[in-house]
Amino acid sequence: GESVGLHLPTLSVQEGDNSIINCAYSNSASDYFIWYKQESGKGPQFIIDIRSNMDKRQGQRVTVLLNKTVKHLSLQIAATQPGDSAVYFCAETNQAGTALIFGKGTTLSVSS
Amino acid sequence: GAVVSQHPSWVICKSGTSVKIECRSLDFQATTMFWYRQFPKQSLMLMATSNEGSKATYEQGVEKDKFLINHASLTLSTLTVTSAHPEDSSFYICSARGDLAKNIQYFGAGTRLSVL
């Protein structure tokens, strides 16, 4: 079935370091992926997206990499700040393209 | 832009009562809205997808008669938890997808439901 997962449930980094959050997906037909950030007690916040016809997309301090060969997605955060501490979810559209399927989430903790 | 408002943010109710949660897209028209449920330290589980003016599509295992969804306009969807029981206590989150970007869903802040 369709599933999206993450490699590590938690990641701890020092302020200023670069963070890499990984996600593995199982549906080779998935053509669209999104990263969301969720702070405690709040709804998810859109970070960046990427379509399957791309390998890399950059935003402000964030980069998403897509490796379709191994069905792997990653989110890179440059110069991580304490405000980046949150749970990060990758998501992919379902086969019908009508909804998002969320992975399990990685909790990023940034220490000063 | 792309603001989704969800109300209330927190509600406590007695077992057997019904609770209505509202989800509004404030600055765009939401052709599709989604309702999710999230347990502590877990991911978001899609409950249902609703398109304006039509019946909601529920995910497998979600009781249609317990979780009533109405999407009467392009800016408002409601979720009513009927005859709530303690096991319905959870964090409910809505999202909206509209004319801004077809695949991006913008989320509300969520509603914490506690059923006593």
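qc> The mean pLDDT of chain A is 90.
qc> done
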